């Protein structure tokens, strides 16, 4: 009953005209940048982060969240029409979505992805509502040692479960933690790594870091990237979007399985919607009666991953809002946005800021309904957006980035930070390091250091406290297991490669 | 298969260098003890970790022989984009938002060779108009539009 009352109160918050407007702006921009290849939701959210200074925290976070799950809807549009993923989590949708478009069934594919996205979101949301209060309650029992262990787990998972090399991912995490050290030390007041710049006393600006790594570095790599893929000229009409009865019949089970898989992986630290979509596709292919249909326009190949990545986008909020531990870089930015507004997410968030928490939950329902309208009747709008050339977009992106960063502290020094971080980010991108773990480490760094210090102080400098406390020991055990599994997987891959090379050499 | 040779070598060295720097520079802050950690404890620990990881990235790449995919760096694009950010930063408070935006857009647009000068000028005008409308008119941001001496 409590939950129901809270939800009703949440809807009251979310239905305020101002909140509705920011929710709409969020999902609209989310779809827009999801559709456009070359700008991800990370870049868009970092771009909007400074704007949130000008509005209340609740509508601000509702807008940012809207960008995130809106991008999950939009991403599939480019995948289907251009065979070019608009965002990482819809890359897998290319495999069967584009063949459907080539068979003249683009309309049906777009309709089914929107429907599957909505389905997945609602399942993920239901699980979020069901589990969040319990997890928050559990969070109250946790001490500093447990928090430290949980953050370690999140960081290790984020850097090892990605596609890149293990050591490189871990290096980016540590680098992020190190960048988080810059500024005034909370416990002693000593200024660290500021090199005499007053502008660094409060630490590197999170906005500058996010924009440098995901904005500027991304623009540099994208400007002259060859653009393939031709947009077919046929118009998508509403009538062509009606899926066949067969499409619908085939999709129920994949959508249910996809939502389950997505919800699970979304809530885990370190695994995001991209991994969820990938696993959902792999599972469908395995359980399918005719696996040969996959890759040739099987509708299950788009509905399963699309419901999975949307479900994951919802459940990803569970650890962020209940424990204050973000699972991926986007969630880290959300956390950053809350901290900028003076709100510390954690187990008490639901009790202290019920309006924010339940308002956000209610806005997910409203935002997803808006997205359904935006992505089915208004699909023509997004198809025409796909025709905007990147050469027109990126100069505007650069100016928006600069002004956005400037607006945080009215400081030109912060814009120069962006240039420096952008150069560093580009260098790491060229050397194929993944940037997302860096941001996660940066956000968690100060929290982790504080909990580490506190845990050690309470245990009088005895490191065994981390394994003496049962919960912390279990979490650290899982962390070690994840790490060991990643090492094994990589070693196995290397051995296999050697095996394959031997007869040839 | 062995296409990551120089990338990993260079990347590993870069990571190790950053780690070494952090560990050395961190010496100037009090290290403290496990029970009472000083401000230097965490950064030095991280620096050592980075140094080791950098080695772990670079060492296998050094031993591994094979044809390496060349590292492609977009020097020109990178220079122009970063330059446009720096120009914007320097011009904003001195010459005002309008000139800073026009200059940044023109400089950045040089990176894409498919644009011609009339297109660049139109683009600069459009972006400037949009910027002023969104940030100054819409969000009420306080920033000088023009220079003031």
UniProtKB/TrEMBL annotation, chain A:
Q: Where is the DUF112 domain?
A: 20-440
InterPro entries, sorted = DUF112_TM
| Bilayer-spanning residue ranges | 7-29, 35-55, 108-135, 147-166, 173-191, 203-223, 259-283, 329-349, 356-382, 388-406, 418-444, 470-488
The entry's keywords: Membrane, Transmembrane, Transmembrane helix
What domain of life does the native source organism fall in?
Answer: Bacteria
Q: Name one Pfam family in it.
A: TctA
Q: Does the keyword Transmembrane helix apply?
A: yes
Name of the molecule in the record: TctA family transporter
What species was this sequence derived from?
Azoarcus indigens
Q: What is the lineage of its organism?
A: Bacteria, Pseudomonadati, Pseudomonadota, Betaproteobacteria, Rhodocyclales
UniProtKB/TrEMBL annotation, chain B:
Q: What keyword terms does UniProt attach to this protein?
A: Membrane, Transmembrane, Transmembrane helix
**What Pfam families does the annotation carry?**
TctB (PF07331)
Spans traversing the lipid bilayer: 9-28, 40-59, 80-111, 123-147
Which segments constitute the DUF1468 domain? Answer: 11-144
**Key word Transcription regulation present:** no
Q: Does the keyword Transmembrane helix apply?
A: yes
Q: Name it.
A: Tripartite tricarboxylate transporter TctB family protein
**Organism (species):** Azoarcus indigens
